[in-house]
Amino acid sequence: MWNNLHTRIRNHTREAHARLEHRMVSRIRRIKDKEEYHGLLALFYGFYKPVEDSLGTTFASDSLLKDLGVAPASLYKGWVAPRHPVGARYVLEGSMHGGPYIAAMIERQVGERQLECPLPFYFLKRAAASERWNGFVELLETVPAGEHAHVLDTALSTFDHFNHWIDHYDKSRHHLAAAAAQEL
Hints:
Blueprint: H1 5-12, H2 14-29, H3 34-55, H4 59-68, H5 85-97, H6 99-109, H7 112-115, H8 126-140, H9 148-183
Helix pairs in contact: 1-9, 2-9, 3-4, 3-5, 5-8, 5-9
C-alpha cells in the first residue's frame, strides 16, 4: 500500500503542500470580520474558477460564488490546462476535504454570528467531506502506472500555482488599498 499513487503524491508534494497550508492557516487566523472572510473566499474563487474551468467542473467555485454573492473581479491568469487533470484535482479535492477544519477554525475565532453570514462553503459535513475524499482516493488508484509521473508533476505544479496566486492576489489588494488611501 505504501507505493500507491495517493501516498506518492503526498510524499512528492509534501513541502509545497506544507508551504501553502502554512500560508492559508496564517491567513485564516487573521480573519476578524465578514470583509476578511469574503477576502478569503475571493482568494479561493480566484484560483479555483480557472482550474475548475480547465477540468470541466464547478463544484467548489459554484459553492464559493453562492457564499460571495458576486464573482470577484480577479482571477488567476497563470493557469494552463494541466498535464494530468487528476493531479490538479488532488489539490482542489484536498482543500475541500479540509473545509470542515477551516470552518471550525473560523467559527472558534470569530463565530458565525459576527461574520453575519453562514459558512456553507466550509460546512460540508465532515462525513460528506470524507466520503468525497475517499471516492477521489479510489479514483487515484485507477490511474495507469504510466501516467503517475504526470499526475505527480501536475499536483506539485498546482500547489506552486496556488502559492503564486496568493502572492499576486496579496499584491493586487495592497495596491488597491494604497490607491484608495491616497484618494482620501
